[in-house]
User: Which sequence fits this backbone?
């Protein structure tokens, strides 16, 4: 027969598992935000490169 103590111990184990998962989910959310910020920065750098290439192309045409 199962005892009240065994059930209470199991509940505590489950609570601990829930807390660990909640922390992991929060950490993953923070990582996702950072990765998204990095992606936006890279897109901005790519646009800047395109602008520089456009400027160089215009200067090249002016020199001809």
Assistant:
């Amino acid at each position: 027969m199962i005892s009240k103590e065994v059930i209470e111990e199991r509940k505590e184990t489950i609570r601990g598992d829930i807390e660990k998962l909640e922390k992991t989910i929060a950490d993953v959310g923070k990582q996702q935000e950072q990765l998204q910020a990095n992606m936006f920065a890279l897109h901005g750098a790519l646009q800047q490169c395109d602008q520089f290439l456009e400027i160089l192309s215009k200067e090249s045409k002016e020199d001809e």
User: Anything to note?
Assistant: The helical segments are 4-63. The mean pLDDT is 96.
